[in-house]
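Researcher: Re-running this chain for the archive, since the previous output was lost when a drive failed. Same request as before.
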Amino acid sequence: MAKDRKKLERLPTKTSPRNQGKSSIIKVSFPSSARNAKLITIDEIDSFSKIGREPNNKTSLLKEQKIKQAFAKIIGEPGSFKDWGGEKSDLYSTRIKVRGKRLAAAIAFKGRGTRGKLVPKKMGKNGDQINRLFEEPAQLFLVVYGGQIDSSVIAQMQAFATGVAISGRKVYYGVVDGTDLGRLASGYPEFFRLGARKK
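Model: Regenerated structure tokens:
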């Protein structure tokens, strides 16, 4: 074959496998329950029904703790949630309503301490905050940030949500970016204490 270049090119190797003209079909299937993972927007969550149309642009100045407190007040969650190294979510509640049903929700917040577009590596010391979020026994998973959220965050959430859904649990996942957070502040100014948006 060293003398015949054409034969040498047809030789299957580890780096250049050849199928000798035979086609191979690889089928990958997922349980139908994987379809139980649904992307949701803040407009579809009943507990935030007063959300405004126009955003209050001051929410980017809020600290993470202030955003968390506002959410807790809106959904009527009286519990105390302090940050610590081993937490899975920043706010866990069973009082959020989605499409008429009360669900358990796990929420991760990122405040003004995070700069620029939010990507997975900015979430947690080891970039594993989304992973830990989906370890909570919840049906609704949200990431809230006062700026732009990269699509890679949603893609990672989708992957984990699908994994949870395969176990048979119906789950919703989504993000609340700076614009939606501003709209929420416009609808609930008494909880964010930013004042009404000027017209």
